[in-house]
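fold-stage: in
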Amino acid sequence: MSVLLSIVLPVHGVERFLPRCLDSILGGPDDGRFELIAVDDLSPDRCGEILDEYAALDPRLRVLHLAENQGLGGAREAGLAEASGRYVWFVDSDDWLPEGSLDAITTELERELDREGEGAAPADILLTGFTHVYPDDSTEPNPWRHLLTDSPLVAGGTLREHPALLRAVMSVWNKVFRRDFLHGLGVAFGRGFYEDISVTYPALVAARRMRYLDRSCYYYRRGRPGAITSTASPKHADAFAQYDAIFAFLDRHGLDASDPLRTLVFERTLKQALTVYDSPGLVPVELRKEFFRRTSEHFARHRPAGYRFPGGASGLQYRLAARGSRLAYDELRRGGRLPRELKRGARAVAPAVRRGVRSSARFTAYNAFRRLPLDEHLAVYAAYWHRGYGCNPAAIYEKAKELAPRIRGVWVVENRAQAAGLPAGVPYVILNTPAYLKAMATAKYFVNNVNFPHTMVKRPGTVHVQTQHGTPLKMMGMDLRDHPVAADGMDFDRLREAVSRWDYLVSPNPHTSEHFARAFPGRYEMLDTGYPRNDRLANTTPAEVAAMRERFGLPEGRTAVLYAPTHREGQGSFLPLDVAELARRLGPEFTLLVRAHYFLAGGPGDLVAGEDAAEIQDVSKHPAVEDLYLAADVLVTDYSSMMFDFAVLDRPLVVYAPDWEEYQEVRGVYFDLFAERPGAVTTDLEGLTRALLSGDSEPDSRARFRERFCPWDDGGAAERVVRRVFPADPS
């Protein structure tokens, strides 16, 4: 029987991992369908001996001992030259195969060859699913699976039929190639880092038929010391030689500037180069300028004629890369948000360039501060992109002062105006000042409800606490990959990098723990504590409620309605509700407290209802939403996470959701809000008016809602977080 599948296994410096890899392969069916060719690339450890020991016991394994180290690409080429199978699979020797994978793959390959016997073309490439495995043995399913399931590639297709494949991982280890097809491409694995892309891109472009097997057939080890994705090295610049080889192949095969596949390949390679440049700790500091220059050269050399920049943040990044404007690019990425002048158009880059000069000096200062020892008693706090003091970080800060007084807390704010709004006595640093850079470089603890800038490196020994800022009804994180409008150009690779820094993720309820574990896959510890910010609501007193009502001028007997809609992706309008008309319908026995989402800086605008109408107060700028909860008798919202917090008070809730069907489609949701309602639900103004005038109309619905979403809201969440994260006070 001829060999169906040749597995090529390059081996170098993986003595710890090699036995598991070999066992997973050779433990497969001994039916003559596969051979294993292991290439000892002059490994400095016992790998060569281990291979010979296994080969002496199993004739399916052949070992090549190279006289000179060839690198991963050269070792693969040496193994490929010895392969005799109809198909070839390149497996990395620090990874391993799940049980049953080989049988599943060879069965699929036999089906493809049966097609050949019937006069049809067999698959040139079989794509497989895989699983990421981290050093603590936690796992993450294939992050790109959604691009392939239900695609034409399941039955068999080409890259032109499913170009979204180019957004998936370009590594070679999840692709099984027909050997004659691979030889016919006239390509070779490159030398140095990123050696496989000079094969995978041409193969995907040229394949006449590809199949996707929706099964995890490979365990890919992530975060291993020495892996190129976590190693600082000048060899990251090897990618540019691989890019040149890719485009030389496209030229030979007639993919000119008018071919949309060429544009997709160009943008994918450019994004990879910029991702390497952006990733902290990969390109050595002294080589970053040269790496960016080569990225700009890559843009100029391979830019398709007539190329049009994409919109949004990616387009602006590409424009700056094309111009070679490294300092402006760094400023854009370091701030995490677009400079205002860049938002206005690509030509308005000069102010950003000037700021980039200053930011380069800041980056140098930050790296100098990183040489200082960690301050074991310093914690840095921030909330909502440095907008001020609040949410879960503020509650944790207050409780840490009580339970861990040795830990000094300092808040990051964006400017002096925000600093002036901090509570008296709260220490602070202003963004991008020397004091800020030193704090970020030396603090032991970091607490935030969003991510700190990615340019702030996570030093060994530091502790990052991510609190997020709401129970999710709408989809979050990696779950947004199938909702492009809501994702709005989200960089999912950057998100994974950010999540990798988290040591703890605070969860408000079991529902959130379940969905955040999937939306933010990582190795952090989930803190099932409840939300610290809700302690105030759980512990409130009648006196505090009365004080808040007095603060907002709410007389006894007046019904206060807090209206707080959420942000809607892709829509310019702020309010889906005619607030003035609602005020006229409710009458003077009501007060409407209207709070705009913080993404909408303009607020709700002029809200005048006239005589005999409810009073309307714009409370969008009020710093503490908890004050508003305490003052309000009822909350009206749509899809905001405020409903889960307000439910702690056990007061009436009304959901006004006129665009529920559209919102589900655009944003994606985790449960049916109409079926698991927190109270009355309505889709029109008439229904909303009736619900508010009728008082507490659905207490049973609210009780069920509270049982599901508020089980941990007992007033002790902040204490549970502080006692888990910070060292206990010795007294």
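fold-stage: in (second)
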Amino acid sequence: MQLEKIPFADTHAFHPFFLDYIQQKESLRPFYNRFPTSGEFKRQITDKQAAFTPDRRTTLVEVLQRQYKDVTTPEAVQGNIKALTNDTTFTVTTGHQLNIFTGPLYFIYKIVTVVNTCRQLKEKYPDYTFVPVYWMASEDHDYDEIKYFRLYNKKYTWETPQRGAVGRFSTKDMAGLLREVPGDIQMFREAYTKNKTLSGAVRHYVNALFGAEGLVVIDADETAFKAGFRDVIQQDIFDNVAKKHVDQTTQALEAKGYKPAVNGRDINFFYLGDGLRARIEKVGDQFQVVDTDISFTAEALRELIDKHPEKFSPNVILRPLYQEMILPNLAYAGGPSEVEYWLQLGGVFKHFQVPFPILMPRNFALVLEHAAHRKFLRTELHIRDFFEDKNYIYNHWVLQHSPRNLTVGKERTDVQALFEVLRERAHEIDTTLAAYVAAEGKRALNSLEKIEHKLVRAEKRLHSDTLRQIEAVKDLLFPNGNLQERTDNFLNFYQQDPQFIQRLLQHFDPFDFQFYIFAYEEPLANPA
């Protein structure tokens, strides 16, 4: 597998907000604790070691052991769960929705990032143990975002009438979809047929894919975890603490020219029940569960928080805090939007006296299987050219390969010089005449631009076959105009190359913040 890397900025796929974080711009420095370099982790370890109590470790291990009770786990996973009882063991975490069949490629990239981060940290700090963790977004209720995936240019969708927290969904009606998906999907077939819930199924196949690497999967939809979150629930619902701190940070970011990713609400919790996850709002003296007939007085709600904290599910503002209170976590690996909204949460963490984790941008990649790589090479373009829009790519190729001069750069310079002389001559006679000459000069330059446009367009017609080939490569690498990693499923490569994930583990460097380009130089042995 051939590897090339290009700077994030050259992809034109990332917000300035994210790029400024990667480049450690001073403007963002007040909004995070430590930047993700391996050397920064020692101080992070010290902070987390002091803040994370033994009783939280005990609860964590007890819950994980119960969640893994019926899962056949490799020794590496069992050892890591047991190691979490020790105050020298820490986690590096990523989280994601429970997309069917893993969803888009970057789900795999996220997990590879945390596995490799733990490997490198172990080499640098051998006296400590580092456990990679995948946090299942089991309480998320956005079924529309998880119900489909794209394989071999076809979209596969799981249709179910179920609603509420997706982790609780039954997998019974998955049978029809399992019959449709091509290739070897035995791992997923077992996951969806041997587990009653979507959370159980996801844990099953993630364990099959990454268990050998010691990856621990956690489902936070647990009463024991929520019990330790009671104080946060109370302060948010009755005092609106989170919104106050998020609003302050949002205003500070906006003052520096950044557009914040999320907005805090007065109440940042959902009411969670069977088939239901709905926002809680205060309406007069009552607390209403939106779009339901459920409501509470303040007294009744306080009692519910005390007796049944599992009925409350944090939204995007407080889920990160919930995670960091459950886990002895050092760093969170996420994509651009995740990094951006975490940067809004520093004040919330400070208020609750929880160490703010190091924010690790996940690894990013584009993969060219052998046939796509051959087609790409025939275009004689650089891979970074394909991150541009199609018309730019066509013009760039034509200007590079035409034997004729299609640009009017020299003529533009000559015309500008000519009209500048005329403008100065006119100014000596009549200042108003100088403005007229300048306007005529601008019209002449516009005419030159039109001529250049027509020259290039005519030349493109002479190379229509080649440009169609370039378009085919562009569409192959950027399906529906999107980054491949946000669209295609990993089975596009894994079914043909069972070593695909191992190759990613070998080549990805979690501390190298660039966009990776992988190309198969030889045909795959097991074509689908």
